[in-house]
Amino acid sequence: MLQVGTIAIDDDELVERFVRASGPGGQNVNKVATAVELRFDVAGSPSLPEPVRARLLARRDRRMTADGVLVLNAQRFRTQERNRQDARERLAHFIETGLHAPKPRIATKPSRGARERRLGEKRGRATIKQGRSGKGWD
Hints:
Layout: E1 2-4, E2 7-9, E3 14-19, H1 27-31, E4 35-41, H2 50-58, E5 69-74, H3 80-99, H4 112-132
Antiparallel strand pairs: 1-2, 3-4, 4-5
Helix pairs in contact: 2-3
């Protein structure tokens, strides 16, 4: 059971596969399947509330498949148990990002003073650049 805020995800919703890790490690890497590939079906999970699911699926994440399955690969540590724990922590963090709805942006206009300052800067910059041209040199 994975607990993220108010959401509880059952263990049968998570698919864990243990594979051999890549990278350095010598003979141990070639013998032992310590890396963890954790799959979580975001689109079909009954544990996720609909707004959270929609926010998670809307994220442009390369770890998400076209079917809405999140695939996390954990191979940072030497032991299978530690990699398994790492994958679950990363899944919890991913779901946590979908819990909070983004605050809607309120469109504002620049103040009159700010507009005048900006235009004054532009005029000043234009006169500096005009002064650099070679007109009137004789």
